[in-house]
Design brief:
With about 150 residues, the protein is an alpha/beta fold. It has helices at about 45-55, 55-60, 75-85, 100, 140-150; strands spanning about 15, 20-25, 30-35, 65-70, 90-95, 105, 110-115, 115-120, 125-130. It is globular and about 35 Å long.
């Protein structure tokens, strides 16, 4: 299954968060949501990316977007990752891999997600998506913020 196409309704989901509560995508209707699938906690590019989401957290909030980083790591692992790196952004655990599968990002042979982004508007419709061809690549926050602003 490929990453959802622009114009399609984003598949709904509920995942546990490092904040301690579950997050349901459809409960965020009315807000822009950036799903940021990342392979694994404590790896170089993922650490850099999540720290950048944290350091520019306010810029995403001011752009009217909720950033939801998602990995297949367990909540205890993600909590340790968040604490160690002093992140502001909450991380979601797709430990059962159901959301990664429904969004077409699960690398079945590796059993973790590719790095991919899905921007969803306030009506729950996909406005932009991108899947990295290589795990070591990521989008810059300037580019992500530009897509968020263009989706208004």
């Amino acid at each position: 299954m490929p990453v959802p196409v622009v114009g399609s309704v984003a598949p709904d989901f509920t995942l546990p968060s490092t904040a301690g509560a579950e997050v349901t995508l459809s409960s965020l209707r009315g807000k822009k949501v950036l799903l940021a699938f990342f392979p694994l906690a404590f790896t170089g590019v993922c650490t850099k990316e999540m720290c950048e989401f944290s350091s520019e957290y306010d810029a995403f909030r001011q752009a009217g977007a909720v950033v939801l980083p998602i990995s297949v790591d367990s909540i205890p692992t993600l909590k340790e990752f968040k604490a160690k790196e002093k992140m502001v952004v909450d991380l979601l655990s797709d430990f059962k891999r159901t959301v990664s599968r429904s969004y077409g990002t699960l690398l079945e042979d590796k059993f973790f997600s590719s790095r991919a982004y899905v921007l969803i508007d306030g009506a729950g419709v996909v406005r932009w998506s991108h899947e990295e061809a290589e795990l070591g690549h990521k989008r810059d926050n300037v580019e992500l913020l530009a897509h968020i602003k263009a989706a208004s």
